Fold Putative manganese efflux pump MntP.
Amino acid sequence: MPLMTLLLLSLGLAMDATAVSIASAVAAPRVRARDALLLSFLFGFFQALMPTIGWAVGAQFANAISAWDHWLAFVLLGGIGAKMLHEAYTHHHPGEGDVRKAGKASNARSPFHPGRLVIMAVATSIDALAAGVTLPSLNVSIATAAAIIGGVTFALCFLGVSVGRRFGEALEGKLDILGGLVLIGLGIKTLLEHLLAA
């Protein structure tokens, strides 16, 4: 497989992860370097892991997963997006109990919470599993392919966090609602793409 073809495949697989990276940074009250590195690492790791799994298990298992992977991505991304919208609302319209708990809850509602990042990384990398099934027929080393796919995703997600942080700072960090809407939109897009293609 020519390097350019593999790079184009990597770019295509990384687009949803990049969009989620931008949305996460936009929604965050502040973005630290370790937040950007953790997000980029997790997204790159799972984007490299999924094709490896697809390559290892073959087409039969991947086809079984493809029957419900779009629903899983829809539920995970939509659920996190809805949770972000709820948290944005309670953050901007706190009740008496919310005020007392605001400091304690700030870390849990962060778009860069490790548990949330893992869920989003899995949700945005499921489609890469099917790509892994095709790798043996393309005469490419799985180690090379996984490294390039993961590396491209890492770089684009890190760039996405930087872009999202700039937007967030320019608009005074009031775009957490937009971040939730982007995740819901990505979940709907994934679902519709598979349903309309069926």
